[in-house]
Amino acid sequence: MDLHLWAKAGFITTPDGNSIHVWGLTDQAGGPARVPAPLLILRQGEAVTVNLTNLLPEPVSLLFPGQQGVEALPEGGAWEPVRPQHEGGLLTSLAQAAPPGGSVSYRFTPQRPGTFLYESGSNPPVQVPMGLAGAVVIRPADYDPVSNRTAYGAGTGTEYDREYLLMTGEIDPDMHLAVQEGRPVDFAAYRPRYWTLNGRCAPDTMLPDDVAVLPSQPYGAMIMAEPGERVLIRYVGGSTANHPLHPHGNHARLVAVDGHLLRNGTADLSHKRFTVLVGAGQTYDSLFDWTGLGYTPSNPIPTVIPNVRNLAVGDAGWTMWSGTAYLGQKGDLPIGVVSYNEMGEYHFMLHSHEEPQLTNWGEFPGGLMTMLAIFPPGSLGPEVGRLGHGGGM
Asked: CA 268: distance to chain centroid?
């Protein structure tokens, strides 16, 4: 398989109306920079070549942590093992890089299934937070989207019905502005003001994939399933900080860390976790299934709006209500609205347990927050909760 990526500058937007300069990757010639980088979906045992063209003003390289035997083909050179690069006795890059306006290729054969990261190996303290990082999903060799949908292969207990990927990130606007203006970055003053899931801040995390208003942030982070289904949630720590993420509703079972199944021989070491601390540069695979109350005569759906005195009241006497399947709007409850949801679904928050990360430059709600929605049986199509094929979603 041959994949092509271009590193380039661009802009992403935040729900408070800010525009942030980023460095991203795209798999479309002439397309906008993407944050996070395009999702790479590969198969165990099948060779892949990733061709990188650098349109940024400094060298860029790619690292593929967890992959063995990675080789690089610099411009005008020959295939050689990926290794750190030095100049004048100083480390300049952790891998062979593409110079500005140049290119480099990498090749490897995935040896095991799992969830992995790929990121820049050149000036990573700047280039990774700027957006040069993405996720790699490696399907097991026996994977079949119909008859054998598993994360780690038949017999591993990792079968699932729907699948989602959540990649964390954070943004220090001052650092991004310094890079945009060509000024040195003051790492001592590094202070994120935005926190992202799949490159978006809440409530944009709950918008669908590929919405036109977010051309550089194509991946949504809304999780949707039906009662009794097993949902595979792939967490990826995509930047420099650790983030404690927690889905409400039920605990999730952690089944793998950094692409390694939690087993010791025949002993199953998977375990349920209230919160997963998504570490910088790490990946975690967990299985979630909802077995709570619901869809019974004693717990009717749609939910009936409670008395006004029991609603959460905000500024100027306004109430927080949901007129859609997502977070909804802030304002007076419209006349005739009798339900908080669109088609009888339940909503649970999935969010960071560090409260400052639930803001957009201090404004709540925002940041590392999305929703996990359980819909009535038969209401979701088979396309919901499916990661794409080939080089992207």
From this structure: 27
